[in-house]
Amino acid sequence: MRTCVVTKEVLPKKELIRVAATKDGVVSVDLTGKAHGRGAYLKLSKAVIEQAEKNKALDKKLAVNVPNEIYEELMKLADDK
Predict the structure, then answer these.
(1) Does the predicted model carry a pTM greater than 0.70?
(2) What is the pLDDT of residues 38-76, one digit of tens each?
(3) Number of domains observed in the structure of the chain
(4) Among 52, 65, 70, 81, which is most buried by a count of CB atoms within 10 Å?
């Protein structure tokens, strides 16, 4: 079980998407759930992703600036869901 950084819901890991940041500040969408670095989990819905971008939830949790490309990638994944 993991907690969404936006909704604070505790959900099974499979229902969330992980965003990881390395010590070097490289941010990526972690589809395997096993990438190195600090991770933050988001519920894969457009509303939650938009809220995360608006209130900088990922930036705060990962202690890095999350580039817009990450949010775009998350939105595409939410479309495919």
Answers:
(1) yes
(2) 999 999 999 999 999 999 999 999 999 999 999 999 999
(3) 1
(4) 52
